[in-house]
């Protein structure tokens, strides 16, 4: 573990026997730049969401990479404190990896706009790719005459709600509590490498007065 990340609670040991910290907070611009790669974001999504161990081969299958290429990315993520080597399982022929904490947070106080922009661009580009794939999938279903389920989730929805400061806090809390509730409900079988996944992107942006309006 390097000094590039700050972790709340006790640090997990390298063999996976220690307590997993609750939050891994990114505090170093170099650590943020290390995330500017699609495969590394997929790995972090997988390990932090599943809270279980994966091998380089398993993770490589999610990214269309070779196991050796994935091992390279895992070592880079280990260098910056995102992942740790886990205890061996089974015949121990292949190293297993786990997230270095339960949650990953970007420290917004970092004085490196370029690093944060690179990270955000990779995140948004990855989600844009998923949206485009879903558009094509739904178009193909429509051409094939497949009727969508009435409960099918929207690909993307946006808008605004009118909330006082107090209601904003309630809205934020209830939305995130729902996410955390369903994360906690996932069984070990549902967290397997072959399980079905649903990706989400949440951005809650309050409206702020402009500089001119704030002074008036």
UniProtKB/TrEMBL annotation:
Gene3D superfamilies: Winged helix-like DNA-binding domain superfamily/Winged helix DNA-binding domain. GO terms for molecular function: DNA-binding transcription factor activity. InterPro entries: ArsR-like_HTH (IPR011991), HTH_ArsR_DNA-bd_dom (IPR001845), WH-like_DNA-bd_sf (IPR036388), WH_DNA-bd_sf (IPR036390). SMART domains: HTH_ARSR (SM00418). Residues 30-109 form the HTH arsR-type domain. This is Helix-turn-helix domain-containing protein. It comes from Glutamicibacter soli.
């Amino acid at each position: 573990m390097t000094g590039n990340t700050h972790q709340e609670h006790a640090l997990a040991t390298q063999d996976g026997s220690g307590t997993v910290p609750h939050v891994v907070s990114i505090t170093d611009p170099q650590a943020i730049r290390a995330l500017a790669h699609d495969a590394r974001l997929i790995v972090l999504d997988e390990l932090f969401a599943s809270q279980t161990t994966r091998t380089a081969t398993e993770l490589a299958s999610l990214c269309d990479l070779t196991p050796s290429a994935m091992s390279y990315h895992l070592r880079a993520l280990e260098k910056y404190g995102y992942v740790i080597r886990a205890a061996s399982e089974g015949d121990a022929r292949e190293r297993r990896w786990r997230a270095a904490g339960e949650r990953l947070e970007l420290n917004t106080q970092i004085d490196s706009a370029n690093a944060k922009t690179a990270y955000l661009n990779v995140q948004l580009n990855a989600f844009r790719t998923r949206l485009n794939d879903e558009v094509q999938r739904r178009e193909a279903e429509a051409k094939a005459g497949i009727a969508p389920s009435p409960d099918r989730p929207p690909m993307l929805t946006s808008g605004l709600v009118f909330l006082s400061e107090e209601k904003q806090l309630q809205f934020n809390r209830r939305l995130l509590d729902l996410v955390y509730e369903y994360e906690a409900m996932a069984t070990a079988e549902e967290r397997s490498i072959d399980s079905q996944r649903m990706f989400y992107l949440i951005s809650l942006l309050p409206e702020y007065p402009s500089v001119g309006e704030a002074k008036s």
